[in-house]
């Protein structure tokens, strides 16, 4: 039988019943929240990045994001050396500040007026050592002599070491020098002697700004370096008509040393015989305007030319590279494996032609092909004022000019050096 008592419907649970039922979960939740709050309050803030030593000071690294008008953030301290290392040379001969090797003077003067220059050495990322080694015009032919260069640089380093502690802490790795002559850091105008002498031991950890640069191995570039353009007086850009307005009635132009017999009195072959071959192949060709004698107003001839031939001399580079760009004449570079300055800005394949030394005999065919195909494209790229400005050392420095580009390159080297240091020892 079933239960005779009537069944009652269960009463609805009260709030108290609900709280009792979930009290365990509420207590657990409350305990977790209190524990988390106590943990966070006791945890120290994230550690600040380790402070770099002053020659690896942290700075914004996105160079492209700084904008065209922004100054590179690298801070340079310029040593105030006695005048015998620099100013005395410039006073003694005005050519010191104007000839093709005068980048050493121009960079020094531009950095002295640079707004990012470090007033105190302890605030500097890099240290500039202003020594003018290419201003000794004591040779019979009037060209600079480098016979004193190594001794003068060694004296300057001794002075820097004795007067301040900054060289010794990095063995000179954050110190910058200019080597603006033929084979740069080897400090000799003849390649075989330069290679035999090598880079002075006391400069092997420093940074060299040098006009010399080639692809691949070479003794004279086995040092941290930036390839810079040869010096051309800034007024060249403005002394002749703007490139796009010039009347170009010369097809291909070269004026300079072309030896009928290329073996120099020293026993060396000048220009690796390239200039002699130019003379042999095109000396009587009316499309080629080739002259061996000096002419002070030769830049007016460049401004009239479609193509300006830039064959190697003793070294692969020459001031013609800069002069032709400034004057709107397409550089025809005949120097195998040459490295050009500031390639990210100038994009040399878009503004010049490169012909292999062995192909001099085919030069006319190459130039005719360019005229028939993409001459106007190359000229448009070449005549961009931004590209012309990047090759000029202004005093004071201007945004986008050659010294400004040097600072950008140095900033890249600083960034690379920091990554190497944090991956191991400093330039180990």
Automatic annotation (TrEMBL):
It is found in: Golgi apparatus membrane. It comes from the Eukaryota. Residues 72-367 form the Exostosin GT47 domain. The keyword Glycosyltransferase applies. Pfam families: Exostosin_GT47 (PF03016). One of its GO terms (cellular component) is Golgi membrane. GO terms for molecular function: glycosyltransferase activity. It is a single-pass type II membrane protein. Keywords: Glycosyltransferase, Golgi apparatus, Signal-anchor, Transferase, Transmembrane. Belongs to the glycosyltransferase 47 family. This is Putative glucuronoxylan glucuronosyltransferase IRX7.
């Amino acid at each position: 039988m079933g239960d005779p008592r009537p069944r009652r419907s269960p009463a609805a649970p009260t709030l108290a019943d609900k709280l009792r039922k979930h009290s365990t979960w509420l207590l657990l939740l409350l305990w977790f929240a209190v524990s988390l709050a106590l943990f966070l309050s006791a945890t120290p803030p994230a550690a600040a990045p380790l402070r770099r030593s002053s020659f690896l000071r942290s700075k914004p690294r996105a160079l492209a994001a700084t904008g065209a008008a922004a100054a590179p953030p690298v801070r340079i301290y310029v040593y105030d050396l006695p005048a015998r290392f620099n100013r005395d040379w410039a006073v003694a001969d005005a050519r010191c500040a104007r000839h093709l090797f005068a980048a050493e003077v121009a960079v020094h003067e531009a950095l002295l007026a640079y707004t990012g220059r470090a007033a105190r050495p302890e605030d500097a990322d890099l240290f500039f050592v202003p020594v003018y080694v290419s201003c000794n015009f004591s040779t019979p032919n009037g060209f600079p002599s480098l016979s004193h260069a190594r001794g003068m640089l060694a004296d300057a380093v001794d002075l820097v070491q004795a007067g301040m502690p900054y060289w010794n802490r990095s063995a000179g790795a954050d110190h910058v020098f200019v080597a603006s002559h033929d084979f740069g850091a080897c400090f000799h105008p003849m390649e075989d002697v330069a290679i035999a002498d090598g880079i002075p031991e006391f400069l092997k950890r420093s940074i060299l700004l040098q006009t010399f640069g080639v692809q691949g191995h070479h003794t004279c570039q086995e040092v941290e370096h930036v390839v810079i353009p040869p010096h051309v007086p800034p007024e060249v850009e403005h002394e002749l008509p703007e490139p796009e307005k010039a009347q170009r009635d010369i097809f291909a132009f070269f004026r300079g040393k072309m030896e009928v017999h290329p073996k120099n009195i020293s026993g060396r072959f000048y220009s690796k015989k390239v200039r002699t071959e130019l003379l042999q192949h095109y000396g009587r060709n009316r499309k080629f305007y080739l002259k061996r004698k000096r002419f002070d107003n030769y830049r007016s001839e460049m401004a009239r030319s479609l193509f300006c031939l830039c064959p190697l001399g003793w070294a692969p580079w020459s001031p013609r590279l800069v002069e032709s760009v400034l004057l709107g004449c397409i550089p025809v570079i005949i120097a195998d494996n040459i490295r050009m300055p500031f390639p990210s800005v100038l994009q040399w394949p878009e503004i010049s032609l490169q012909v292999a030394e062995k192909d001099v005999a085919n030069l006319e065919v190459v130039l005719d092909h360019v005229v028939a195909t993409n001459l106007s494209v190359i000229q448009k790229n070449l005549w961009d004022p931004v590209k012309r400005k990047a090759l000029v050392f202004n005093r004071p420095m201007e945004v986008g000019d050659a010294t400004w580009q040097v600072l950008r390159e140095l900033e890249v080297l600083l960034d690379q050096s920091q990554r190497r240091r944090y991956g191991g020892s400093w330039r180990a």
